[in-house]
Design a protein that fits this description.
46% helix, Rossmann fold, 4 domains, six-stranded mixed sheet, extended, 381 residues, alpha/beta
């Protein structure tokens, strides 16, 4: 009996101890959950701090620039030490007292404004532009591949080129091809995106794009629609026009600041060379101006063959006669014709593309261009 009673007592004690341990674990978990929720509530109650840039420092005060461009003289808290001009800081919103310094190199992510890639476009994909390709190879490819040759000859390699001509003629394609041939990082941006809303941000963005290019060198910076940024400067009256000029001047400063044998090259592209400011076109900046025309018959044949080489063509397809009907078409439009011809074949569930498909595609693309031209005339006429 005594042994049995002892077993019962031991069982009760074990059960009590186990329950007590479980309750202590639950209590600990509940306390941690409460602390976490209290911290979360405190985050919601804490007012946000403003990100500002330090312009200058005088004793216990500093001149800061807030995101909308306005500048204020504010106090520096004791916990924030060793500030210098150009630092990015956190300021209390009500009186803008500087609370803390944040370790950042830029106030926005430049990579969200640009397209960065390693293109795989070969020169074989560029048709009908032999002269233009040779010029680009001389100005961009040769200095990147053989910089010592220029050093030995005692000449400075060009810093960049301007590709100009009608839309759809292959300007972007050539820029990607030269980046691929030199194994360079291709950084593409549209000129209008360089003009930012707030004062000074466009110029800062230009500076950071060139810093990014140097970091990822060898690199090719391709600015499409460069006329949006580098148009002829006039007497400016609005803040928007002044901001465009400010951004343009930063672009000129970055180009002039290149080291002679630097492995970052600039390619600009435009449909309106006539509106560009002469400052961007002078020797030492965009050294070579390359006209990219609408392709002639021989070039159209070459482009057509490139875009149709993987298409199963019927025996009735005669390239020469089709190309005759595409007089005035750009390379992009010839590509569109091949794509549309393929769609005509797909609609009839055929595995070969016939002559009539290309004829219909030519009429469709030509009609589309005609309608766009009429819309343009109606808009401005």
């Amino acid at each position: 009996m005594q042994s049995k009673d002892k077993d019962i007592v031991d069982s009760v004690i074990y059960s009590y101890t186990a329950n007590n341990n479980r309750l202590e674990e639950e209590n600990k978990l509940l306390k941690e959950t409460i602390n976490h929720l209290q911290n979360e509530v405190q985050k919601f109650k804490t007012p946000p701090l403003m990100v500002c840039e330090v312009r200058s420092i005088t004793g216990e005060t500093a001149i800061i620039k807030i995101p909308n461009g306005n500048q204020f003289s504010v106090y520096i808290s004791d916990q924030c030490k060793n500030l210098k001009s150009g630092d990015v800081v956190l300021a209390e919103q009500k009186n803008l007292t500087i609370i803390d310094k944040i370790e950042v190199t830029k106030t926005f992510d430049v990579e969200s404004f640009v397209i960065i890639e390693k293109p795989n476009v070969s020169w074989a994909a560029v048709g009908g532009l032999k002269q233009q390709i040779n010029e680009i190879k001389e100005v961009i490819e040769l200095p990147l591949k053989k910089p010592k040759l220029f050093k030995e000859l005692g000449i400075k390699p060009p810093k960049g080129i301007l590709l100009y001509g009608p839309p759809g003629t292959g300007k972007t394609l050539m820029a990607k091809a030269v980046a691929a041939s030199t194994n360079s990082t291709f950084i593409e941006i549209v000129g209008s995106e360089l003009v930012q809303k707030f004062i000074g941000e466009g110029a800062k963005l230009v500076k950071e794009i060139f810093e990014l290019a140097r970091k990822k060198a060898p690199a090719v910076i391709f600015i499409d629609e460069i006329d949006a940024l580098a148009g002829t400067r006039m007497e400016v009256g609005t803040s928007g026009e002044r901001e465009v000029n400010r951004t343009f001047m930063q672009l000129l400063a970055e180009v002039d600041g290149f080291a002679p044998l630097d492995n970052v090259k600039l390619i600009g592209a435009t449909n309106r060379k006539d509106v560009l400011d002469p400052a961007i076109l002078r020797p030492g900046r965009l050294d070579r101006l390359i006209y990219v025309p609408v392709p002639k018959k021989e070039s159209r044949i070459e482009i057509f063959k490139i875009h149709s080489k993987r298409m199963p063509l019927d025996n009735d397809v005669v390239i020469d006669s089709l190309v005759e009907k595409m007089d005035g078409f750009s390379g992009a439009e010839i590509n569109a014709v091949c794509t549309e011809a393929g769609y005509f074949a797909i609609r009839e569930n055929r595995k070969k593309v016939h002559k009539k498909d290309f004829i219909n595609a030519i009429h469709k693309v030509a009609q589309s261009e005609k309608l766009e031209g009429q819309d343009y005339m109606n808009m401005f006429g």
